[in-house]
Amino acid sequence: MKGTKGIMKKGIFITLEGPDGSGKSTQIQLLSEYLTKKGYDIVLTREPGGTAISEEIRKVILNPELKEMTDMTELLLYASARAQLVGEVIKPALEQGKAVISDRFIDSSAVYQGIGRGLGIETVYEVNSYALQGLMPDITFLLDLDAEEGIKRKKKQAELDRMEQQDVEFHQKVAEGYREIAKRNPERIIRMDGTLPREVICDMIREKVEEQLNK
Ligand code: TYD
User: Fold this and answer.
1) Per-domain residue ranges for the chain?
2) What is the pLDDT of residue 151?
3) In the chain, count of helices (H) and strands (E)?
4) Are 143 and 150 in contact (CB under 8 A)?
5) What is the CA(9)–ligand 1 centre distance, in A?
6) Cβ contacts of residue 143 below 8 Å, gap of 6+?
7) Pocket test for ligand 1, best of 144, 163, 172 (most atoms within 8 A of CB)
8) Residues 13, 26, 19, 59: is their CA dihedral positive or negative?
9) Does residue 107 have its Cβ closer than 6 Å to ligand 1?
């Protein structure tokens, strides 16, 4: 049958990344309002989390009392939370033509576990290939921020979780790691200065998302 009715909007998978305290949640909120106005069905999610099972895994990962957790256990737990989120939420939503926006995704594992913990990016991708089932974000925004600035912003909050309690060197490796993977994936990862005013970052994100939607 001819006509425009049969043309389905294709789904889009957007992720936001950045060191702790980089302002991702504000931008996610603004972007989701924008896409909703444009008529998109939005699915907002976060990692680790986003499903009942993944939120339970999150509690274990971030529990500051579990100091004995090995780096490999940490990597596998993030991947398990991700496997459930991909299977239960992200894949079905994209198949229905929705816009999925995730606060963190695979790049966080590449940077925090691969570089921060020193497990290696290749190991991270290998383990995560089972969780991702071929899925990758269409576009990723990196809110770039120096480790010290991120920690300063976070310390204003009440309690620091197990990851936030890592020393400043760890967070420096994370910030540097993000720049490295952005360089390696210039076609997907858009790096932005996280210290810019939020309106400026918001406009830049909208522009890039528009470009992606028109591709
Ligand atoms: P969260 O409270 O979501 O941090 P933020 O508010 O800064 O985004 O906690 C998630 C923590 O887990 C954060 O410190 C980054 C870390 N993380 C990893 O180490 N690996 C991963 O794969 C993901 C998704 C997060």
Assistant:
1) 12-213
2) 76
3) 9, 5
4) no
5) 31
6) 16, 17, 18, 22, 23, 24, 27, 192, 194, 201
7) 163
8) negative
9) no
Q: Bridge partners of 140? A: 15, 189
User: Which CATH code for domain 12-213?
Assistant: 3.40.50.300
40 lines ligand 1 (CB under 6 A): no
CA separation for the pair 120, 11 (Å, rounded): 31
* pLDDT, tens only, 133-168: 999 999 999 999 988 888 778 777 778 899 998 999
Q: Which amino acid type is present at position 147?
A: A
Closest C-alpha to 10, from 94, 68, 76? 94
pTM: 0.94
Strand 42-46 with 99-103, pairing = parallel
Q: Measure 163 CA to ligand 1 centroid, in angstroms.
A: 7
Position in ligand 1 atom list of the atom nearest CA 79: 22
